What does this fold into?
Amino acid sequence: MTQTQPVGTLRLTIDDQGPQGQSRAVEQFHQGALRVIRPHYLDDSGQVCYTIIAIGGGYLGGDVYEQQFTVKDNAKALITTQSATKIYRTPQGPATQHTEINVGENAVLEYLADQTIAYREATYHQFTKVALHPSATFVMSEQITPGWHPDGKHFAYDEMRLHTEITDSTTGRLVLLDNLLLRPDSREGSFGWTEQYTHSGQMIVMGEGVDKQLVAELNEQLAAHPDVYGAVNFLSAPGTLLRGFIARTLSNRTEELINLHEHIASLLRGRWRGQEPVNLRKY
It folds into this structure.
């Protein structure tokens, strides 16, 4: 992925060869500051849950992290984090995370990470590349929270860049190229376009069950939510059967964004797979 020696490396390959139809890791590798704890099965669907731990305590200037997740045909996985990802001052250069994801035929991956907290004078670059079979289901949610500042400023970090690419693994066609760039200083200390909100989130969902009716329903739910402002946009591209949506959300509390994203994930897993709501049992 990169030519710089990573601070932490993690690779997981999930297959559905476990007993009683349970998915499990058939390859697991970690090195440096990234680990995973033993897998859990949160319901009787056979979906395996892995929790990522960053043992370094936080990302520092010049740090590079690499992750690779492969979910093979018919397997089901949920990947989450133990706690928030913290980005501290980065005078040596940006902290960077590279993630590569491959999801096979009729496979499911829900990547539900805790919030990313950017502290004073922090720069963070995140690059996520996703290759999906047209029959795969992929859910990814993330939230950005401004870290504590002694002067009470909300936006004291320097830059947050979240770059995401999603392609059809059978045709190579690009479905989504998204580059979210947040630079508070370019707005003279104010976020302007976020109005009164301090926290932001995004949720990307790809799956055969996504259609314009679902997107309209989710937009209605967002419009009725008193503490979250946002919109959902339909995703499709010529030359591929992949379709999905991306939701942009704003709030003043991380919990509101996480709860909303988990509500959407639970709604979809119930409709599409008859599965129980998300219950990560962290708190």
